[in-house]
Amino acid sequence: MSAIDIVKAGLAAVEAGDFKKLEGMIADDMVFAGPVPEPVGKREFMGLQIALHTAMPDWKFNATEMKENGDQVTMMLQITGTQTGELSLPMPGFPKVPPSGKKVSLPNDPSTFTVKNGKVTRIDAPVSANGGVPGILMQLGVPMPPMP
Predict the structure, then answer these.
(1) Cβ distance 26 to 46 under 8 Å?
(2) What ranges in 17-116 are assigned the alpha helix state H?
(3) pLDDT tens digit string along 123-132?
(4) How far apart, in whole angstroms, are the C-alpha atoms of residue 122 and residue 78?
(5) Radius of gyration over every alpha carbon of the chain, rounded to an integer in angstroms
(6) pTM exceeds 0.85
């Protein structure tokens, strides 16, 4: 499988809620940086993906402009979803958000996935002012909790 095929399969696994499959595609020492207050590892990343999919089962990445260059895959992601379930982010200080029925549509932001030995080892997703977790909370009408 090429790096781009692995990334596409990982995105599809999240959208389908197949977290067992996703877990097998991610290296144990994986790092996720950008749309979270500070970089997180595999366990925290998996918890975040599960929490977001539970809250928004129609979660879509809407990936475009996918390009592979060696072990890196770059793309633009424009995340959308409807909050029909409770959002319980696995991060300290974040409130539980009851289902609101609100639609979320984040800005189109770049992401870079690094794939080594058939597994995703790093995801860098710098976000615009209204993107990432802060953008999701803002669109749901929930204030971003203060960070320590």
Answers:
(1) yes
(2) 19-24, 42-55
(3) 998 877 888 8
(4) 19
(5) 15
(6) yes
